[in-house]
From TrEMBL, chain A:
Its EC number is 2.8.1.13. GO terms for cellular component: cytoplasm. Residues 209-273 form the tRNA-specific 2-thiouridylase MnmA-like central domain. It comes from Klugiella xanthotipulae. Signal peptide: none annotated. Catalyzes the 2-thiolation of uridine at the wobble position (U34) of tRNA, leading to the formation of s(2)U34. It is an enzyme of class 2 (transferase). This is tRNA-specific 2-thiouridylase MnmA.
From TrEMBL, chain B:
Its cofactor is pyridoxal 5'-phosphate. Residues 3-371 form the Aminotransferase class V domain. Belongs to the class-V pyridoxal-phosphate-dependent aminotransferase family. NifS/IscS subfamily. Keywords: Iron, Iron-sulfur, Metal-binding, Pyridoxal phosphate, Transferase. This is Cysteine desulfurase. It holds the Pfam family Aminotran_5. InterPro entries: Aminotrans_V_dom, Cysteine_dSase, PyrdxlP-dep_Trfase, PyrdxlP-dep_Trfase_major, PyrdxlP-dep_Trfase_small. PANTHER family: CYSTEINE DESULFURASE, CYSTEINE DESULFURYLASE FAMILY MEMBER.
Length: 383, 388
């Protein structure tokens, strides 16, 4: 096959490209320019898409012996990922920009361009496994090494996209082995630190970055009965489940720590309360996609596991697609149906905007964006 | 098969230049040393400077060797601007928008940090600077102009400026004019004294010499404050002089000057075939810059291809064994929309489909044929990939 290897400048994508070559494919390396900050250098483990990463990717391509190009997706990235990130936070939701990038850039804009230019597939260094079912349909599964599994961030991929993906690292038992392999292959990135955090916020200070983009506006911090406990400098800087940085000055009457329960962007208020109030009994949302073949009857209750963050543990759950009560509060304009998931045990730290990825065993079933949550406490109270 | 159609980026080192270069690299001694070894090196260097001066139509004392074209241009823009502030208030630089980044970025740096002012020099749709526009700008700004700088020939679209007329206008206002002749040398008759300008930048690797040596030609009447300070080896530059580079540059310039008429004639004919071939292969392609029978560099062809990204085309042609360019500016390999096309008034959507084909020594009809053969399929595919 003709394979486009997306090369970030890190060790995983470099080894993935090398394995694609070894598997006999015709491989071309492409680095995605996602920002235009040519002067930026990497500091510690933070940031990607810097000039240094581009040079690292090129050196890796040279050593592997494949042609290398830089494709500029900076305009698309700004519009689809960065602006979306700001808009979502401003609306009180907590987005995952890496998933958005996979959905809109890597496996959309890049993949489409690659196919149009004559490639058969895009190869990346993600730790996930592709399986073909008996009927020839692609399925996305967790990596065999659970600790490195990245299937969550790929949960947005559709059958059509999966059919054009190639993840050579999915069966690798550990990252250490990938680094050892990189060293054996003479790749200079063998010991390059892993990238963390959000690539377009190079110093890792998401709150400061958002304050700069969205601006600061003083608002109230309330308890769950509506009493004013203190003030904040912008509701967008808070995330559901957050404990640090509330600066309330005095402890709760019961002396227990308080957590952000809710962010209300329209009234610029933040609601805090005890940890147990964070326990979520039901999540629901829209904008879903199936990672492969859809279920025949998603309107019927089905057993699955739900995962709400890249590194969260999956929780057994029952799920279905249900009609939205026309009288209910509107969370998504124009939606008539929503995905509803009831985990067997309460979830913690769930925020609207997060992606819920559903699994059956190791297989990724699909995903949706969480629009609303129902507290486990009130569910129990109702029951 | 590998076809090289990017001679404007750099052109192959000529065999005879390489031999002379390697031989000169064996010369022992720093030309600034007083002993016999130093004197021999100095003699070799100065002979080379005289030969380069003869080829460029200037005097040896007017040549300041630099590390390349970019350094020569920086020395001209910054050095002359600084020198012009010594006895009067002259903050303004007159620079057209389609200059090489070496000029634009140096000027913007002066404006951002040194108090320089930038005044525009409007270009026409073909990136040509009309002498009337220069006159209007000089008249508008008055005595505060430090320097005018323009390309002799545009490195992207190949437009040749009316240099004698521009020089005459600048002279009327007694303002020094610097020419970026990096892309002109070897392709046009370049004669410093006859051009009537006060400063001119050139580079060896664009004419079959080695990378790493260029020169700023500075008339006796003009002073440039050095960019780097040290041993004072040259009029406007400190640093040990590159004897072997100077020898190689001199030979490359002599060959280019001696062969110019025949070379330019042959290259023009080949370029005309290329333009016709491209237009037949892709009738939608739009030739940018002046017509091929007009004031255009003989080896230059520049097109925009509607509905596709230049970098998609570049990639597909590269895969077909043909090396071309999307323009000149390059940051870590990231292609940006050409500021030259923007200065010519080309809309961004059209400018993104830009490709430059440049011919030079060793270019053959089969190179042109290979491009023309590969282009239709590349264009169809690149159109499918669309604009990112």
């Amino acid at each position: 096959m003709k394979i486009l290897a997306a090369m970030s400048g890190g060790v995983d994508s470099a080894v993935a490209a090398a394995r694609a070559v070894e598997a006999g494919h015709e491989v071309v390396g492409v680095h995605l320019a996602l920002s235009r900050m040519p002067g930026t250098l990497r500091t510690g483990s933070r940031g990607c898409c810097t000039i240094e990463d581009s040079m690292d990717a090129q050196r890796a391509a040279n050593i592997i012996g494949i042609p290398y190009y830089v494709w500029d997706f900076s305009d698309r990235f700004r519009a689809e990922v960065v602006d979306d990130f700001i808009a979502e936070y401003s609306a009180g939701r907590t987005p995952n920009p890496c998933m958005r990038c996979n959905e809109k850039i890597k496996f959309a804009a890049l993949l489409d361009k690659a196919i149009a230019l004559g490639f058969d597939a895009v190869c990346t260094g993600h730790y996930a496994t592709l399986v073909t079912d008996e009927a020839g349909h692609p399925e996305l599964h967790r990596a065999s090494a659970w600790a490195k599994d990245q299937s969550y961030v790929l949960g947005v991929l559709t059958a059509e996209q999966l059919a054009r993906c190639y993840f050579p690292l999915g069966e690798t038992p550990s990252k250490g082995l990938v680094r050892a392999e990189a060293e054996r292959r003479g790749l200079g990135v063998a010991h390059k630190p892993d990238s963390h955090d959000i690539c377009f916020i190079p110093d890792g200070d998401t709150r400061g970055w958002l304050a700069e983009k969205v601006g600061e506006k003083v608002g109230n911090i309330l308890d769950n009965e509506g009493a004013v406990l203190g003030q904040h400098r912008g509701a967008h800087s808070y995330t559901v489940g957050q404990r640090k940085g509330l600066s309330l000055g005095r402890p709760a009457p019961d002396g227990r720590p308080r957590f952000v329960l809710e962010v209300r962007p329209t009234s610029n208020t933040v609601v805090v309360g005890p940890r147990e109030a964070l326990a979520i009994g039901t999540i629901a949302g829209g904008r879903w996609s199936w990672a492969g073949q859809p279920l025949a009857h998603p309107e019927r209750d089905f057993e699955c596991e739900v995962q709400i963050r890249a590194h969260a543990d999956p929780v057994p759950a029952r799920a279905r697609i249900a009609r939205i009560d026309p009288e209910a509060e509107v969370y998504r304009e124009g939606a008539t149906e929503e995905f509803v998931v009831e985990p067997d045990e309460p979830l913690h730290g769930v925020a609207p905007g997060q992606t819920a990825v559903l699994y059956v065993g190791t297989r990724v079933l699909g995903q949706f964006t969480i629009d609303r949550t129902v507290s486990a406490v009130s569910v129990e109270a109702q029951a | 098969m590998s076809v090289y159609l990017d001679h404007a980026a750099t052109t192959p080192l000529r065999d005879e230049v390489r031999d002379a270069y390697v031989q000169a690299l064996a010369v022992v001694g720093n030309p600034a040393s007083i002993h016999s070894h130093g004197q021999r090196a100095k003699r070799t260097l100065e002979e080379a400077r005289e030969r380069l001066a003869a080829a460029l139509g200037c005097e040896p004392i007017e040549i300041t060797y630099t590390g390349g074209g970019t350094e020569a241009i920086n020395l001209a823009i910054k050095g002359i601007w600084w020198a012009r502030q010594r006895d009067a208030v002259r903050p303004t630089l007159l620079i057209p928008g389609a200059e090489h980044h070496a000029t634009i970025d140096a000027a913007e740096w002066l404006a951002a940090t040194q108090g320089a002012r930038l005044a525009p020099l409007p270009l026409d749709d073909n990136a040509r600077l009309a002498p009337t526009e220069l006159r209007a700008a000089l008249a508008a700004v008055g005595p505060q102009v430090a320097l005018v700088s323009t390309l002799w020939a545009n490195n992207e679209v190949g437009t040749v400026q009316p240099v004698p007329e521009l020089a005459a206008v600048a002279a009327e206002y007694a303002v020094p004019l610097h020419l970026d002749a990096v892309s002109a040398l070897g392709y046009l008759p370049v004669h410093f004294a006859r051009s009537g300008v006060q400063a001119m930048s050139v580079s060896a690797h664009k004419i079959g010499g080695p990378v790493g040596i260029g020169a700023l030609i500075l008339s006796r009447s003009v002073t440039a404050v050095p960019l780097q300070h040290g041993g004072g080896q040259q009029r406007a530059r400190s640093g040990t002089q590159d004897v072997a580079g100077a020898v190689a540059f001199a030979l490359a310039a002599e060959l280019a000057t001696a062969e110019l008429d025949e070379f330019a004639r042959r290259l023009s004919a080949l370029r005309d075939d290329l333009v016709r071939g491209v237009q037949e292969a892709v009738p939608d392609a739009v030739l940018r810059g002046v017509a091929i029978n007009g004031d255009r560099l003989p080896g230059n062809a520049h097109f925009t291809f509607p509905g596709c990204e230049g970098d998609s085309l570049l990639f597909l042609l590269d895969a077909a064994g043909v090396s071309v360019s999307t323009g000149s500016a390059c940051q870590a390999g990231v292609p940006e929309t050409s500021h030259v096309l923007t200065a010519m008034g080309v809309p961004e959507g059209e400018a993104r489909g830009a490709l430059r084909f440049t011919l030079g020594h060793g270019s053959t009809p089969s190179d042109v044929a290979a491009l023309v053969a590969a282009l239709p399929q590349a264009y169809t595919r690149a159109q499918q990939a669309g604009l990112a």
